[in-house]
Amino acid sequence: MSFSQSSPWGEPTIADLIGRRALTAVFQPIVDFDGGAILGYEGLIRGPAGSPLETPGALFERASHEGQSVALEHAAARACVTAFTELGCEGKLFLNFSADALVALGPTHDSTVDWLKRQGLGVDRLVLELTEQSTIADVRSFAPAIAALRATGVGFALDDYGTANASMNLWVRLQPDVVKIDRFFIDDIANDPLKFEAVRAMQHFAQASGARLVAEGIENAADLIVVRDMGIALGQGFLIGRPDPRAARKLAEPAREALGAGHIAVFPGATRSPVASSPSGGMAAAKMIVAAPALPTSATNNDVLDLFNRLPTLHALAVVEHDKPIALINRRSFMDRYALPYHRELFGKRPCMLFANASPVLIEKSMTVEQMAKLLASDDQRYLADGFVITDEGRYVGLGTGESLVRAVTEVRIEAARYANPLTFLPGNIPISSHIARLVGHRVQFYACYVDLNHFKPFNDRYGYWQGDEVLKFAAAVLADVCDPTRDFLGHVGGDDFLILFQSDDWRDRIERAIDAFNQGALRFYADEDRDAGGIHGEDRRGNPTFFGFVTMAIGCVRVDANVEEDTRYGSEEIASVAALAKHRAKQADSGLFVIGLEEGAAMMHAREAHV
Prior knowledge:
Layout: H1 14-19, E1 24-32, E2 38-46, H2 56-65, H3 69-87, E3 92-97, H4 99-105, H5 109-119, E4 126-130, H6 139-150, E5 155-161, H7 168-174, E6 178-181, H8 183-186, H9 193-209, E7 212-215, H10 221-230, E8 234-235, H11 253-259, H12 284-287, E9 294-296, H13 301-310, E10 316-321, E11 324-330, H14 331-338, H15 343-347, E12 362-364, H16 369-376, H17 383-386, E13 388-392, E14 395-400, H18 402-419, H19 429-441, E15 446-454, H20 456-463, H21 465-482, E16 489-494, E17 497-502, H22 507-521, H23 528-533, E18 536-539, E19 545-548, E20 552-560, H24 572-588, E21 593-597, H25 598-611
Parallel strand pairs: 2-3, 3-4, 4-5, 5-6, 6-7, 7-8, 9-10, 12-13, 20-21
Antiparallel strand pairs: 1-2, 1-8, 10-11, 13-14, 15-17, 15-20, 16-17, 18-19
């Protein structure tokens, strides 16, 4: 191909490429997850094959240097529309535009609509994407241009949402029909809890605004299954189909297999400390505030006595200077001292700082429970008797008691443990129940496997809780190692009880590997003499001397069949109860494994309850 013009680089100019129609359109499919049909295609552009300007990046970089960016965008759109209609493609055509290019379309939208009709493409099949390269100085003045275009019947999309320019501000002001989630958030979403939570937040906002979401950049089956199960409407990426000038009419085989997969995704869970990530962690200090007056440093001990007498429930008094707490006076200590003979006469008119604690424990109102918990483990335990001062950016706001601190930390730790076990950080009872409900609701077959450790209590009694915790962490690691994180859900019920919800076809082999790996590995936690003896001496639950073998793993499994009629389906509590029954049978089996069907197990459980 010869060119009549050239750029300073000795290559054809963008204007020449446009004039000679040297741009090639390629199309990447966008799939509707509900049914797996191709909803439409994103039209993309390529320069002359084999040339330095073949890639869109190089093409648009050159256009920017030559001041031809808007012209290139419009030419690319025309090339995509022409090729799309010539191919006879069904569905919608998504076209990329910068803000400047969209505004430039405004005055000519009538002629654009007429041209589209002549090409045989209805305006209702066209979706204009505002790209992330767009920097919009004034969104208010930009919005009318978008409204004028949408009035013609075209759809409007916000592209690459989550990047610097594709912000929630634009989403709220422009109210797009479609929002395309930037590939950064989709890549490895199956293993990244923060990306998962970010996309879930986008999903909540999309539901409120009425926009449909497109997950861009899907390149593996695990990510596709996660966004599918999240309820994202549409997807795009190399796994679904690569950009192709012929516009693929069906999904790539790996994408079809992933969409038709019978198992549901295991959503990635948070791995941070459950206390630190507790939703109430930052509010605990604020909830503990006891509103209490404070005295200035100029106050006397008689002033302290008068205040304590007027407020009999006040456990302490803060001394402040310029709103900053500098000391704390404990009620009991102060009143006991004043009960001594002549103390009021001797010290009543002297400064209150005489009997004050000049280095009180200070807690910021915004302090997390994790930070407060460190106080409980510190050497300074004065807060238990004196209480402490609560501040807001260093300014006095009230008092707190040692009892309220212990209660707050305990309550949040208990609540957090329901979501994630504080020792292993594995999901706790609430996520376990939630995942069982998802499995049952999707009517997929799975195996609920209850894991318990034989002889763990005697081991704990002999070697101590620290060594016992090491055994529990080892058990968690062994179980995690045999699970497929995209199919199998591992939770920690509490103590030495774990629960696995298997969707892997080779679940039995995985279980047998876990039992063998744990039973062999647990021997290293014993002293040499106990290993030589084959176990340890201890007491049973009735206090009788007993010899206990090594800690071993027992797993009771319940098969929950797919497509069970809704009126006969069991909930998470019933399934967990039958799994616990199977666990007791597994503890009696030489192999450490027992498997039972849900219906049979439920009947056994009900018969036992009736007998009792």
